[in-house]
Design a protein that fits this description.
The protein has two helices and three strands; from the N terminus they run H-E-E-E-H. The protein has 91 residues and is of the alpha+beta class. The chain has a three-stranded antiparallel β-sheet with strand order 1-2-3. The relative contact order is 0.12.
Length: 91
């Protein structure tokens, strides 16, 4: 956003005071390519401002983890006792 006309950066800050992450548009370029942009209006013009977007990628190893691994509950091999009548047996 370095080459914007005067006042456009202020308009962006006014329109997106909490950031524009939720307002980014994917704009097709026609040759199976695209870019990301936000919109902003001034008194004189409407702008489509190209922005850089970092896409989060999921590592396959993370998907293989059992849901309880992050909670430190068991090792995923033994069943959890979910019978409410047996809660007195838990030490």
């Amino acid at each position: 956003m370095n080459n914007l006309p005067e006042g456009v950066n202020d308009a962006i800050r006014k329109k997106y005071p909490n950031g524009y992450n939720d307002y980014v548009l994917k704009v097709p370029k026609g040759n199976n390519d695209f870019f990301y942009a936000i919109t902003v209006d001034t008194d004189h013009a409407s702008y489509l401002v190209k922005v850089n977007v970092k896409i989060d990628s999921v590592i396959e190893e993370e998907d293989d983890k059992a849901p309880d691994d992050d909670l430190g509950i068991g090792n995923g091999d033994e069943p959890l006792n979910e019978d409410p009548e047996n809660l007195d047996d838990i030490e």
